[in-house]
Amino acid sequence: MAIELLPNWMAGLEEEDVAFIKKFILASGSLKEVAAQYGVTYPTVRLRLDRLIQKIRLAEDVAADPYIAMVKRLAVNEKIDLDTAKLLISEYKKNRSHPAP
Q1: Which of 1, 22, 31, 91 has its CA at 20 to 30 Å from residue 37's CA atom?
Q2: Widest pairwise Cα distance in the chain
Q3: CA 74, CA 78: separation in Å to the nearest integer?
Q4: How far is residue 83's CA from residue 85's CA, in Å, rounded to a whole number?
Q5: Residue 62 φ/ψ, nearest 5 degrees
Q6: What are phi and psi of 50, to 5 degrees?
Q7: Is the Cβ–Cβ distance between 39 and 46 less than 8 Å?
Q8: Residue 28 gets which letter from DSSP?
Q9: pLDDT in tens, 3-47
Q10: 63 phi, psi to nearest 5 deg
Q11: CA-CA distance, 54 to 95, in Å (whole number)?
């Protein structure tokens, strides 16, 4: 597939995310097998998959609202905590619907 044909959600993934997806597919979706390949526990792999799912969903949100997507991305990447992200998004939505005079 040519790079210009990559979906936005895939183009935004890091190299290690793509490697994880490849291992996951080759393991027929077995998180237990992927955990063994990485030498980590099942819950660690489950967390990694959950974060990858969040990244993919965030990529789809960017078109809808880039600011909200950025805040969510910061939370997923643990740059800010979830409560802070929720507060920022809430205030942003409030100010967007009721702009200051």
Answers
A1: 1
A2: 58
A3: 6
A4: 5
A5: -55, -45
A6: -60, -40
A7: no
A8: T
A9: 556 677 777 788 999 999 999 999 999 999 999 999 999 999 999
A10: -60, -35
A11: 26
